[in-house]
Amino acid sequence: MNYECILVETVGAGARKTGLIRLNRPKALNALSDPLMDELGHALKAFDADEGIGCIVLTGSEKAFAAGADIPTLMQHDFMSAFNSQLISKNWEHILQVRKPVLGAVQGFCLGGGCELAMMCDVLYAADTAKFGQPEIKLGVIPGGGGTQRLPRWVGKSKAMDLLLTGRMMGAEEAERSGLVARVIPAAELMDEVLKAAETINGYAAPVVALMKQLTNQAFEVPLTQGVQIERGMFHAVFGTANQKEGMDAFLNKRAPNWPQP
Ligand code: CAA
């Protein structure tokens, strides 16, 4: 597939590399058009299937991660066309099928569908220039990419209501305080730091990384007791893998682990 709305590259020096995807519609502040979301889904699937890739980093530009769904396209819809074309749902959720960690690196505007896409990442790192918000209310609509559901889970009900009902933007420090982002990093250092985190993750045993991601995301889907039971079962299962033998043997013999290939 030829990409016109995203830039894709592989970075890193280790055995397993990082798949880097940059949203790239600069004239529209990376507004998430259908072609862009199709390309993003394709690139995510390709990196996920590539055994040479450890994690995926998703980012935008200095000015915007993404300023939302593409408003001129939305403007053309009525109820039937939105329903029939499965507006938003059709190509927005490929990211949720990815088994490898997806690290979001946010600079500038991260609004509406942009914020919803960011919340589908597994971890968010924000530049000190990042601005998050769900301004759909200003357009006379509600979020359609999970904003009313994921935002309360990330930042709590009161902060989510404040953002959703006022449509205001929240800066990076506030986003970190409220739990939306893992770390705030000076803009000039953002990509280096995120790629460093990705490289650390790439160095761990791939099946254990995938399991960690799956279980942590599951915490938002199942009741606590059931989640802990599933974790316990998986914890027992990892003792049947060569990764556990190698990791613990390496620790006890004071050497670096040499993870078996999956
Ligand atoms: N869709 C399409 N184009 C967009 C866009 C969007 N979401 N956001 C910005 N653009 C375009 C602007 O139309 C403008 O294009 P032109 O130069 O051709 O006029 C260009 O990007 C630059 O934007 P501005 O001139 O407005 O830049 P600014 O720095 O003055 O303001 C901004 C930046 C505050 C982000 C402002 O552009 C803005 O408010 N954008 C809309 C944000 C928004 O409402 N997002 C929600 C969309 S709906 C949604 O996402 C639904 C959902 O849940 C999936």
From TrEMBL:
Catalytic function, reaction form: a 4-saturated-(3S)-3-hydroxyacyl-CoA = a (3E)-enoyl-CoA + H2O; a (3S)-3-hydroxyacyl-CoA = a (2E)-enoyl-CoA + H2O
Keywords noted in UniProt: Fatty acid metabolism, Lipid metabolism, Lyase
Domain of life where this protein originates: Bacteria
Alphabetized GO MF terms: enoyl-CoA hydratase activity
Pfam families: ECH_1
Class of enzymatic activity (EC top level): lyase
InterPro entries membership: ClpP/crotonase-like_dom_sf, Enoyl-CoA_hyd/isom_CS, Enoyl-CoA_hydra/iso, Enoyl-CoA_hydra_C
Ribonucleoprotein recorded as keyword: no
Known EC number: 4.2.1.17
Alphabetical list of Gene3D superfamilies matching this protein: 2-enoyl-CoA Hydratase, Chain A, domain 1, Lyase 2-enoyl-coa Hydratase, Chain A, domain 2
SUPFAM superfamilies found in the cross-reference section: ClpP/crotonase (SSF52096)
GO biological process, one term: fatty acid beta-oxidation
PROSITE patterns membership: ENOYL_COA_HYDRATASE (PS00166)
Family affiliation: Belongs to the enoyl-CoA hydratase/isomerase family.
PANTHER family, per database record: ENOYL-COA HYDRATASE, MITOCHONDRIAL (PTHR11941:SF54), ENOYL-COA HYDRATASE-RELATED (PTHR11941)
Function: Could possibly oxidize fatty acids using specific components.
The protein's name: enoyl-CoA hydratase
Organism in which the protein naturally occurs: Inhella inkyongensis
